[in-house]
Amino acid sequence: MKGNIVDGKPKSQTESDVKLAETLPLKILLAEDNVVNQKVAINILKNLGYRADIAANGLEVLAALYRQSYDVVLMDVQMPEMDGLTATRQICAEWEKEKRPCIIAMTANAMQGDREKCLSAGMDDYISKPVRREALSTALSKCGLSATETVVKQEKAPVPELEIAIDKAVLQELKEMAGDAHEMVVEIIDCYLEDTPMLLDEISQAVEQEQAELLQKSAHTIKSSSASVGATKLSELCKNLEYIGRGGTTEGANVILSEAKAEYERVETALRDELQAYM
Asked: Which of 6, 25, 106, 231 could pair with 11 in a Cys bridge, judged by C-beta atoms 3.0 to 4.6 Å apart?
């Protein structure tokens, strides 16, 4: 008991574990549809010094990741609407390895072959339910080390140039395709500037009225036309909105929509500057 005394008081395991969060701060998303299991996991994380956001299914996980980045996703395997394996495959398809979170599977099955199934889907680690503090602490430690290595690499990376609204290479290709027919480029840009605000209004309507199909359709149109004029970031944001709508929901779309509207203002300014060259 001697080595476990601090200031004359017994040192609890919880106090010791909190140092994990202090040493390896992690932003955690807990994907779990069972309320009881949610509370158990949240309590363990709290004892380790962490807090977590919650998603009730795979679609909510993807929506959360589109809104912000996480270091770790604790992914229940069996969830309604979209299970953990499907969500993980989608994350691996959407995000590069260096940019996606560490995914830890949580499953109550614990049958032979489950671990391999989770890892083959793209998950980084696997713990069985009921979740134990020691197992979760070990898994988080592994993810924490990976996250630290990524941060170090990013700190050493050169500072990128200020992000521009329009990819000049795409616009140049459009000009070369038009040749001497400059009016064609003007017509394309004018059409884009006329249509996009209306489509953004449609997306706003879709979000307000929870019309997933309209969200998907309108976002898909802007995604495609933005890519054609070189508005790469706006196209990517609309791709995320399209995916949310394709999942039959509009949840989480309002945050991305705000980004898309702000980005369109930048795109509009850049394209109007381009039009000045043809005046």
From this structure: 6
Please name which of 213, 255, 263 lies closest in space to residue 233, comparing C-alpha atoms. 263
* pLDDT value of position 162: 36
- 217 vs 212: CA distance, rounded Å: 9
CB under 8 Å to 54, separation ≥6 — which residues? 29, 30, 31, 32, 38, 42
Q: Which tokens is 164 given? A: 């521009």
Structure tokens at 39: 């509370």
At 216, the amino acid letter reads: Q
What are the residues facing 6 on neighbouring strands? Answer: 9
pLDDT in tens, 170-199: 888 877 776 766 788 888 899 999 999 999
Distance CA 248, CA 220 (A): 14
Contact, 257 vs 203, CB < 8 A?
A: yes
Backbone angles phi, psi at 162, to 5 degrees: -60, 130
Say whether pLDDT at 6 is over 50.
no
Helix extents (H) in 110-252 = 114-121, 133-156, 168-178, 182-208, 212-229, 232-246
Structure tokens at 13: 């395991």
